[in-house]
Amino acid sequence: MNFSSENQNNFSSNKKKKSFFSSIFLFIKRKKSKVKETKNDDDLDHKLVYSLSPQKVPSIKQIRNARKVLTKKEKLIVNLLFLVIFIGLVFLVIRFCKNNLKVYPDFGGEYIEGMIGSPKNINPLYNSARDVDSDISRLVFSSLFKRDKDGGIVEDLASEYSVSENNLEYLVKIKDNVRWHHGDYLKADDIIFTFEAIENIEYGSPLRSSFVGVSIQKVDDFSVLFTLEEPYAPFLELLTFGILSYDLWSNIPSQNAFLNELNIKPIGSGPYKFKSLTKNKAGDIKDFTLVPNLDYYGQVPYIGKIVFKFYNNYNELVSALNSNQVNGISYLPYGLKSDLVSQNSLNFNKLNLPQITSVFLNRKKNSLLEDKNFRELLSKLIDKDKICNELFSGNAGVANGPILPNSSSFNNDIQVVGYNYTEANSSLDEAGWSVLQVYETDLSLIREVIQLDKEVKELESKMGKTNKIVNSTKNIKGCCKN
Question: What is the C-alpha separation between 35 and 41, in angstroms, rounded?
């Protein structure tokens, strides 16, 4: 058979291609066969070692040396697996603690608080006049009712109470498991004695005016009845005064009660009881220590000791806080907050105090004030929000009446007269009033007159020349008018 030269060339090319692919196929086949043989050999080696090993579970020594026979890739995989396992365990532990563990306070420890002044009368009859006495008294003495954390009125010594339909009689039953710090039980006689002492003018209690027209009588050993001459919705708020022990105070003459030692070494029925005090050379109390009352009828306090330290002024108080002489202070003026060294490590607590700062208008002194509309115009000219924000740094709120919003007797429907300068100014213009500009020289003159009046009063009390001095005062006032 004869082939052309072109056919011969194609045949040779195809033959070469077949030969090339055949070579590659044989190479791959030999490679797979070799790998298979190697794998079979490794499997046989593993089976042989496994069959000869006395332990089927790797020992600790083998586990430690395992990394020596691992490749870099295998080590990376093992490390990643361990990391995943560790993260999973941490997650499980956190979840378990969150769902099954609860944090409870423990008993013990000491808290030191700095205060301005020093205690004089830690006695419910008198403590309302001084913050130092009042703060300590609240810890030592119990009361029929007290305020909760939100400022509401709740039972303290009282177990229950009821009010008559005419709102004139309040029947209060007290707990029968309350003990005084010296061991005796607290009964109705103690409450009656305290109330009658408040009403007794010889004791001189500042609370006396709050209970005019109120009487008390004993129902049984653990019940008393208050009777009012006329209804008074927030009456329960008045029953937050501390109770004195009849056995301890009944033998002390009322005129000497203010000077008795029990005023600075009190015995009450509250959560804390008096332990000790120290005085300086001048006789002023420098520190005062309270410890928990373990027989307290409520929750026994957790803090094992409270120490009050007393300072003369706020600069000393802030200095004591900065130097860690005290753990906290009772009150910090707005202007001294910047003097605190470590503000980030301190907790600032804002409390709503049941007090009102007010301006009272005496209608008898000025006939214009008899007009209700005129008084409302004056109220509209006073920007109360600005006063609260600028003078009190936002730490005060606007009061629209004598009863605070957190009181159970607060009237939500009360008419609010807010700040409205434009409306008030327009009403005054219509009434014929005009704006009077007061300059600094005028203010200086007014200050001089006030200072002269003070000096006149001092001279009157010292020299007794009343007639001559009064005439001089009239002349001074006449000069100012001119």
Answer: 10
H or E element at residue 44 = helix 5-52
Total residues found in the chain within this entry: 482
Distance CA 119, CA 404 (A): 29
Closest of 208, 258, 218 to residue 238, by C-alpha: 208
Q: Which of 110, 114, 113, 119 is CA-nearest to residue 279? A: 119
Between 78-82, 144-148, 387-391, 473-477, the lowest mean confidence (pLDDT) is in 473-477
Can you name the residues that pair with 169 across neighbouring β-strands? Answer: 227
Radius of gyration of the chain from Cα atoms? 44
What are 117's two structure tokens?
Answer: 């002044």
Start-to-end CA distance of the chain, whole Å, equals 153
DSSP labels, 272-338: EEEEEEEE-TTS-EEEEEEEE-TT-SSPPPSEEEEEEEEESSHHHHHHHHHTTS-SEES---GGGGG
User: 166-201: per-residue pLDDT in tens?
Assistant: 999 999 999 999 999 999 999 999 999 999 999 999
Summarize pLDDT for 324-365 with one digit per residue, the tens.
999 999 888 877 888 888 888 888 887 777 677 888 888 888
- d(Cα 211, Cα 200) in Å, to the nearest integer? 11
Phi, psi of 224 (to 5 degrees): -135, 155
Distance separating alpha carbons of residues 106 and 109, to the nearest angstrom: 9
State how far the alpha carbon of 129 is from the alpha carbons of 132, 148, 195, 459, in Å. Answer: 9, 22, 18, 30
As a whole number of angstroms, the distance between CA 461 and CA 33 comes to 127
Measuring CA to CA, which residue among 378, 8, 316, 330 is closest to residue 139?
330
List the one residue out of 345, 238, 282, 277 whose CA is nearest residue 136. 277
pLDDT in tens, 73-111: 878 888 898 899 999 999 999 888 888 888 888 899 999
How much of the chain is helix, strand and coil, in % rounded to 5?
A: 45, 15, 40
**For residues 472 and 45, which has the higher predicted lDDT (pLDDT)?**
45
> How far apart are the C-alpha atoms of 213 and 218, rounded to whole Å?
17
Question: Where does the pLDDT of residue 146 fall: very low under 50, low under 70, confident under 90, or very high at 90 and above?
Answer: very high
